[in-house]
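User: Here's a protein and a ligand (2-acetamido-2-deoxy-beta-D-glucopyranose). What would the complex look like?
Assistant: Let me lay out the input and then the predicted complex.
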Amino acid sequence: MAFTTKNAMRALFLLALVCAVQAGKAASKDAKAADDGAAKGGGSCPSGSCDITKLGASGNGKTDSTKALEEAWASACGGTGKNTILIPKGDYLVGPLNFKGPCKGDVTIQVDGNLLASTDLSLYKKNWIEILRVDNLVITGKGKLDGQGSAVWSKNSCAKKYDCKILPNSLVLDYVNNGEVSGITLLNSKFFHMNVYQCKDLVIKDVTVTAPGDSPNTDGIHMGDSSGISIVNTVIGVGDDCISIGPGSTKVNITGVTCGPGHGISIGSLGRYKDEKDVTDITVKDCTLKKSSNGLRIKAYEDAASVLTASKIHYENIKMEDAGNPIIIDMKYCPNKICTSSGASKVTVKDVSFKNITGTSSTPEAVSLLCSDKIPCSGVTMDNVKVEYSGTNNKTMAVCKNAKVTTTASLKELACA
Ligand SMILES: *[C@@H]1O[C@H](CO)[C@@H](O)[C@H](O)[C@H]1NC(C)=O
Ligand SMILES: *[C@@H]1O[C@H](CO)[C@@H](O)[C@H](O)[C@H]1NC(C)=O
Ligand SMILES: *[C@@H]1O[C@H](CO)[C@@H](O)[C@H](O)[C@H]1NC(C)=O
C-alpha cells in the first residue's frame, strides 16, 4: 500500500512538473507575441482596442450581445499595456457579465453606447456587471448602463422580509484598486446602481444616477470595506439612499453631489451583520439635497450584531432644498419594523461636525439626534446650521436624545438644549 501510494505520488508530481513547465512556456510565448506586435491586446483587439461590434455585438437593443462583451474582456484583460473595450453608440442587450482580473495590463471600458440589462431574472446568479480584482480600471464615456429595473421591481420583497432575495445590482466593483468611473449614466437598476466592495482609491466623477423616487432599494452608490473613495460632481436621484457608506469605509470624500429624490446621503446601516468594521474619516462637502426624504443621515440598528464605531465625520457647505430630516443620527434605525428597535446598542457615533448647513426642511425637525442611552453620541459640533422649516403651522426644531453637542452661531431653535 505504502509503496504504491509513493509511486503514484511521484508520478503525479512529475506530471504536475511537466504541466507547469508547459504552462510557463505557453504563457511566456503569449506575452512575447503580445509585446512583439503593435497590437497590445489579444487577436481580437487590434492596437489595444476591442470594439464589441467587431466581435458580434449588435446595437439594435434586441440581440443578446453578452458573448461579444465576454470576449472583449478576455482579450483586453489578457493583453499587456493599455487596452480599451469600446462600446460604440447603439443599444446593446446583455445578460450578467463577470469580468475577472487580475489583468496583464490596464483596461479601459469606453462606454459611448448604452448597455441594456436583460430582464430575465433566471439568467442572473447575483449581479449584472461584476468587475473583480482589477487594478487601474477606467470606465468612462457618455453612455448608459440601463438596468431595466421597472420590469422586476414588483418582485422585490425586502420591505416585508428581513432576509429577502436580493435582485441584481447593476455595476459591482469588488477588489478594484485605483479605478475611475466617469461620465456615464446609471439608469433604473434592479437593486443598487453601484456597489463598491473591498476597493481602494476609486474616483467616481461626473456620473448621473437616475431611477424613480418610489423604486425599491435602488440605492445610487453603496460602498463597504473600502478606502480612498471619492465621489465628485455627481447627480443622483433614486428610490433609496443616494449614497450609502457602509461598514468598513474609511477615507471617503463626497464633493459636489446633488441628491434627490432619494433617502439622502447616509452612513450605514451599521450593526446589522456580524464582524462589521469601523467607519472613519468621512467628508461630505459642497452638496445639495433636493426634496430627499432625509439629508445627512447616520443610521445604526439598536439590536446590533457587531460592535463598531463611526467617527471623524465632517459635513460642510451643504444646501438643503426642502429636504426631510436634514440632519439625522438615528441609532434606533429599524426600517419597516422588521427588526427589534430595543436592544443593547453596540454602535458608537462620535466626532461628527456639521458646518455651514443651510436651506429649508420639509419636516419641522431639522435636526434629530436620536442616540442610544447606553452609548450616547459624543463630540458632535454644529457651526452655522441654519435650516428653516418650509411648511406652515409649525416651526423648525431640534430633537436630541443622548447627544453631547457643541453649537456655535446657528439658529437657537436648532441648538440641542
Ligand atoms: C479628500 O479631500 C481632502 C481635502 O480636499 C484631501 O486632503 C484628501 O486627500 C481627500 N481624500 C481622498 C480619499 O480623496
Ligand atoms: C456655505 O455653503 C454654501 C453652499 O451651501 C456656500 O455657497 C457658501 O459660500 C458657504 N459659506 C461659507 C462661509 O463658506
Ligand atoms: C409640529 O411638529 C412636531 C414634530 O413633527 C409635531 O410633533 C407637532 O405636533 C407639530 N405641531 C403642529 C401644531 O402641527
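Summary: The chain has one domain: 83-407.
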